[in-house]
């Protein structure tokens, strides 16, 4: 399957882009609001029933029927595939209620790793780990839990954050695969009409209200065969991730939770500022901060070009590289601009002026470089080529600064050597 960029793993807007779907959503809105109010009333009773009844097959059946009235329809493949001896379920993460959905099918506990404490943690169905302060202590506590006989299995989401469930999986954390010798992968599909299943930076309360607003949300659970661990936890995590990706029909990526947070941060800060920059910018068909297919491709291209420039010029901040790439849309031109700016900085430093020691795009009014152009004609395809290109540019840059200094002060060529 074709590798996709990280921006395709998440939805940044909840409403559809198609005009027909927007019209249907507008027509459905009054019905959805009335349905949401009614379901809130029913949801209170679902919560009370789930709290009053002990954990059993009868309770799960009653709560599952009541959840269908809330528009949350849960289906599973053959329940006999569920291994009653396994102590750890591994599932992909799509919504903030995935653990509640799995609890409607079987008894399992999901530890709250961060954020919630006390009543809110208990009300949302998490197992609180209040006494745990670090990752090593968490692994030790969960290992003790898994070795305790008679306790329900653990349900963990090694992606550690949600995706839209349509394109790929975040890289699995390896610590979860050191708890037991065998795990059972669980593939979760989530679909709903009109609206996105989840959006980044949306609270669980907002996600719940939108779930009650839409006509229905279908959760499809598939139990995969139990997988044992003959290798290291890292290789075990990669193997289970690949198995789940194949079952879900998505790609297995190397992006992590930290990469998602960095992408959201860049989407919120860097790209809007670049969109507002109109000095020498090429015309664009859509704003840089939008989430349509064309802007997503453009965002991925800018990020890829920024990484190429960063490999050649590792000392220049990524924000400056990105800003110049938005203007030029060319790797070679951006490298040339940044190198020429560094030439000016070295020349000013040689004359004792500290004001020239700053990075930034070259001003349009700056004089062109006529003696030496320390920019390669092409971008190297291998790291060795790029390293040699950087070395040659540095040598050309120093030679250019030396000659300018000699010419400016009228020094003799032999005395300056």
What does this protein look like?
The structure is a single chain. The chain is an alpha/beta fold and 417 residues long. Helices cover 48% and strands 9% of the residues. Strands 1, 2, 5, 7, 8 and 9 form a 6-stranded mixed beta sheet that branches. A two-stranded parallel ribbon has the order 3-4. A two-stranded parallel sheet has the order 6-10. Helix 4 (118-123) links the parallel strand 3 and strand 4 (127-128). Helix 12 runs parallel beside helix 13. 27% of the residues are buried. This is Lipid droplet-regulating VLDL assembly factor AUP1. The chain crosses the membrane at residues 20-42. One of its GO terms (molecular function) is ubiquitin binding.
How many strands, which pairing sense, and closed or not: the largest β-sheet?
A: 6 strands, mixed
The total count of helices amounts to: 14
How much helix, percentage-wise, in residues? Answer: 40-55%
Shape: globular
Count the beta strands. Answer: 10
H and E order? HHEEHEHEHEEEHEEHEHHHHHHH
Rg of Cα set:
28 Å
Oligomer: single chain
Mean of all residue-level pLDDT scores = 79
Strand content: 5-15%
Distance between the termini: 58 Å
Unreliable residue runs: 277-295, 346-375
Protein name: Lipid droplet-regulating VLDL assembly factor AUP1
Region (Disordered): 277-298
Pfam families: CUE (PF02845)
GO biological process, one term: ERAD pathway
């Amino acid at each position: 399957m074709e590798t996709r960029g990280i921006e395709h793993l998440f939805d940044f807007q909840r409403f559809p882009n198609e005009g027909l779907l927007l019209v249907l959503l507008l027509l459905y809105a009054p019905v959805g609001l009335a349905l949401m109010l009614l379901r809130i009333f029913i949801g209170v009773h679902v919560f009370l029933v789930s709290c009053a009844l002990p954990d059993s097959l009868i309770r799960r059946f009653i709560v599952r029927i009541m959840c269908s009235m809330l528009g949350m329809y849960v289906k599973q493949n053959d329940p006999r595939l569920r291994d009653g001896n396994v102590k750890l379920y591994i599932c992909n993460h799509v919504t903030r209620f995935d653990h509640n959905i799995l609890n409607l099918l079987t008894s399992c506990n999901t530890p709250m790793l961060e954020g919630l404490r006390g009543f809110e943690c208990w009300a949302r169905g998490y197992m609180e780990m209040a006494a745990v302060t670090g990752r090593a202590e968490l692994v030790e506590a969960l290992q003790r839990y898994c070795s305790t006989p008679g306790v329900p299995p653990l349900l963990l989401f090694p992606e550690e954050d949600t995706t839209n469930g349509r394109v790929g999986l975040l890289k699995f954390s390896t610590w979860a695969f050191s708890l037991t010798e065998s795990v059972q992968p669980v593939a979760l599909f989530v679909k709903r009409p009109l609206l996105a299943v989840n959006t980044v930076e949306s609270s669980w309360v907002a996600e719940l209200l939108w779930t009650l607003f839409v006509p229905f949300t279908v959760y499809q659970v598939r139990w995969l065969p139990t997988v044992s661990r003959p290798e290291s936890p890292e290789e075990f995590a990669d193997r289970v991730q690949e198995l789940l990706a194949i079952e879900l029909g998505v790609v297995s990526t190397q992006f992590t939770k930290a990469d998602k947070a960095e992408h959201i941060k860049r989407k919120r800060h860097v790209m809007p500022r670049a969109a507002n920059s109109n000095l020498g910018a090429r015309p664009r068909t859509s704003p840089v901060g939008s989430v349509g297919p064309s802007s997503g491709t453009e965002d991925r291209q800018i990020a890829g070009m920024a990484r190429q420039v960063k490999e050649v010029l590792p000392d220049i901040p990524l924000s400056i590289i990105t800003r110049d790439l938005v203007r030029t849309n060319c790797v070679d031109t951006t490298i040339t601009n940044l190198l020429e700016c560094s030439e000016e900085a070295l020349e000013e430093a040689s004359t004792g002026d500290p004001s020239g020691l700053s990075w930034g795009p070259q001003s349009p009014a700056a004089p062109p470089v006529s003696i030496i152009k320390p920019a390669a004609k092409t971008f190297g395809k291998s790291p060795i080529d790029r390293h040699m290109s950087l070395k040659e540019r540095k040598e050309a840059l120093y030679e250019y600064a030396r000659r300018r200094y000699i010419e400016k002060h009228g020094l003799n060529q032999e005395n300056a050597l």
